[in-house]
Amino acid sequence: MSEEMGYSPSFKRPSEILRMRRKRARSEAFSSSPSSDTSGTEQSVSSPSSSSSCVRPFSPGPLYFNSLATSGAGVKRRNPFANVENRRSPRKKCLHLNDDEAGEQTTERPPPTREEGDLAFSELMSKVEAMGRQENYKQKGLSLSEDSSLFEESEDDVKTPLLKSPRAISPLSIAAPLCTEYPADWSLKTRLLFTSSLSLSWSEQPKAQEEASGLSQHCRAHFSTWPPNLQDPKSCTELRCAFQQSLIYWQHPSLSWVPLFPRINAERRFTGKSAPWAHDAELQRGLMSDWSASLSSLYSLLKAKLCPYFYVCSYQFTVLFRAAGLGGSVSINALVSPTTRGLREAMKAEGIEFTLPLVEERTTSREQQNVCNEERQQKDSCEHKEDTCCSDGPDDDEDGDGGGSLSWLKEMGVQDKIKKPDSIGIQLRKEDRAVRVDHKPESVVCVEGAHAFTLVNFLINCKSVVAAAGSQAGLPPTLLAPVAFRGAAMHSLKARCVNVKSQVGPGYQNISSMEITGPILPSSLHAITTLLRPAQKGNFSATLYTHAPTAILNIHGTKQQRTSGAEDLSAFGLHPASIKQLQQPSSLGKTALTQISMNDYGYTWKK
After folding, report:
1. Per-residue pLDDT, 77
2. Residue span of the structural domain in which 199 resides
3. Which of 489, 506, 524 represents a domain boundary (last residue)?
4. Which of 241, 236, 458, 265 has the alpha carbon at shortest distance from 344?
């Protein structure tokens, strides 16, 4: 049997193996000599025993190709005692690698194996990606090094830092602009839950002097300052006084044994409570008299720009009154939600002009679509009878909502056989659309200007603002405001701190939490977050629980936009930062904030 290249079909004696080694060493030395490059190359192709690139390593496995070897010294050959199944065909053993320095080329290249093909394809794709990154960063003033591992500075942009990896300029690593404020939220909150890795115990158990100073500062509308870098918030008296000041709100009526917020869908909270006014008409008249005086006082303060806003919380709806200059409006405006067809008809009977912002948006888009359809129909009919279309067009829309143009019936000659929709049917359809939005967020009503004063008189004289039966029977609506008004009682939100352990990875981390409950006004929320910013080193998160019927109050229903911010609103009694936030139109739409997070003094939020 002839001896195959790099393979011993039978066992050989040690003497024969030594003779083969000496013969192979001589042939390799001859082929690697510089004087016989051409002859050595031809011999490597013709002689199987002189090919060092096709020699199998000692252990069984694939062929070992060493393209960097320049001599035969130390080159491993196939183990003659290897398994016969590791044998390869002579065709696959004639593969020669290119030598970049010597410029040698093989005369015959057999088809590559699957592993070699995958390796070559991956190398090719890496080169293509490197070229693409190089072109991309050349446009940005960066140059890609040849090994595709470093991004260096270009001459055009010396300030660009040296990056160690192409991933360092990925979109995720580009720092977003720092957001120092979150959008204004006009909804009422029932609960706040703050968490931070730093302790929040500085906010609890105020001293008597600190609580008194906070109450005095609130009544006088004074706002203390504190150092920008607080090392120990618990020892900062100004911070603790300001926190007590941010918890205060004013309410009417005030009954310590009855929770007067929230009022919508809160029958269970009133069940079992003592209600002496429920069956006493004289007591009900006294409560309504005091309530009317308080509401009139609030509107007077609002008109004089001494009160920024206030809420009227009835058992059926909630009204938000805002002063001129807040929410992007130039005049006093009010939002009522939710409403019913009966309430809206009663407001119309009192001469109150109002708009339905969400319904009008939907109606406007629908009307625009109908106009486009009518124009398309008229254009098609004009192609056949232009004169008839022009003469009959203006007389077809007598009913306003009569279903569009009927000129095509006249063209077909069947106008007498088809009955036009009557006014009664059109009116019924309108009423059906109006009733369909009752008790829904889309029923929100916006009142502006002088009509807001008419709305106040309507609320005072309207009997439907007070429940006639049920657990809330005879009880006037709740008035909430951030400043004092006639007949109001001062209340403070309840704050409670708890330290818990949260699992972070394999271990546990101490997390401090603070819970605040009560009717939380927009200015109170902003004042509390403003205090937590320096106290918690710019890192905290808050979960907000919204009174659902008031989330719709974030819509921008006013038509008159504020053109300039030169108005003096300092008499509102709020912190200047809070006033600046509430001046901007809300961007939340029909939703409210559910979470606020601050990381490295930058805000992020969720709706």
Report:
1. 65
2. 189-247+493-555+590-606
3. 489
4. 458
